[in-house]
């Protein structure tokens, strides 16, 4: 038996320095792709899948996000905001969503990931025994993100952030969109800084999987883009 998820947390606090002068005035999730901000594509896609309540985590140029979306009423959703004061990793940021989520499951998406909206419908109804869903894409360069290791049932057994040459790797790339139950907060609360000095969400996901709870991988269908640099942006806007 599955239940419909109606809440989503969108991470939009970062500047996106690889975008160079494009983010002098805008946070990266507010860069336009095909005529509207990346973040708006995400909100509209999730709304179509039944999500109506959003928490947008803001930081760099926060006022740009607030001015564009307001309380969400123009897009027929409800939007709240939380501010990430220190950019110290994605693991810390999830803790900001604890009150917003309450006892309910929620979607988490990075604010610069574009997917075929059909994928959102597959994320908003997790099976009752599934504690988390981690979306993956095959055959991306895992050194640029995270490698996701799965078993025969396509359940997550490990996640490694930006594995170095010679380290174990996987063909499954962490695609940056998740479904979580509130159990994730147990593991984000226990995080220690990674070798990069950041609190990594992937470490919390590994902890959840290693605790014996079911973390399901989900291969995304259709188009997927991490709008990480001007070259990707140019390709999308062609």
List keywords for this structure.
globular; alpha/beta; 8 helices; two-stranded antiparallel ribbon
What does this structure look like?
- The chain has helices at 38-48, 62-69, 90-95, 98-101, 118-123, 184-188, 201-210, 230-236; strands spanning 7-12, 32-33, 36-37, 53-58, 78-83, 106-110, 113-115, 130-138, 146-150, 156-161, 172-180, 214-219, 224-226.
- The protein has a single domain (7-236), classed as Spore Coat Polysaccharide Biosynthesis Protein SpsA, Chain A.
- The chain is α/β, with parallel strands linked by helices.
- It is globular.
- It contains eight helices and 13 strands.
- The N and C termini lie far apart (42 Å).
- The relative contact order is 0.19.
Name the helicity range. Answer: 10-25%
Q: How would a textbook summarize the main sheet?
A: 9 strands, mixed
What is the strand tally?
Answer: 13
Given helix and strand content, the structural type is alpha/beta
Mean pLDDT over the residues: 93
Strand content: 25-35%
Instruction: Examine the secondary-structure arrangement and name the CATH architecture.
Output: Alpha-Beta Complex
At the fourth level of CATH, the homologous superfamily is Spore Coat Polysaccharide Biosynthesis Protein SpsA, Chain A
The domain count comes to 1
Radius of gyration: 17 Å
End-to-end Cα distance:
42 Å
């Amino acid at each position: 038996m599955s239940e419909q998820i109606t809440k989503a947390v969108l991470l939009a606090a970062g500047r996106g320095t690889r975008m160079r002068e494009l983010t002098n005035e805008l946070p990266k999730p507010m860069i336009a792709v095909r005529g509207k901000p990346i973040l708006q594509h995400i909100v509209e896609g999730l709304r179509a899948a039944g999500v109506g309540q959003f928490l947008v985590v803001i930081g760099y140029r926060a006022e740009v996000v607030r001015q564009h979306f307001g309380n969400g009423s123009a897009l027929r959703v409800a939007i709240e905001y939380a501010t990430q004061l220190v950019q110290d990793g994605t693991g810390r940021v999830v803790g900001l969503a604890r009150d917003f989520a309450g006892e309910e499951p929620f979607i988490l998406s990075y604010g610069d990931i574009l997917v075929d909206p059909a994928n959102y419908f597959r994320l908003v109804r997790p099976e009752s025994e599934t504690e988390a869903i981690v979306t993956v894409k095959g055959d991306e360069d895992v050194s640029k993100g995270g490698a996701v290791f799965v078993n025969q049932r396509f359940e997550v057994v490990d996640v490694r952030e930006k594995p170095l040459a010679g380290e174990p790797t996987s063909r499954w790339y962490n695609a940056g969109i998740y479904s979580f139950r509130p159990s994730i907060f147990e593991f984000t609360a226990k995080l220690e800084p990674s070798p990069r000095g950041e609190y990594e969400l992937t470490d919390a996901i590994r902890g959840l999987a290693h605790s014996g709870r079911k973390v399901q991988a989900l291969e995304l269908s259709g188009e997927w883009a991490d709008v990480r640099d001007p070259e990707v942006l140019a390709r999308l806007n062609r």
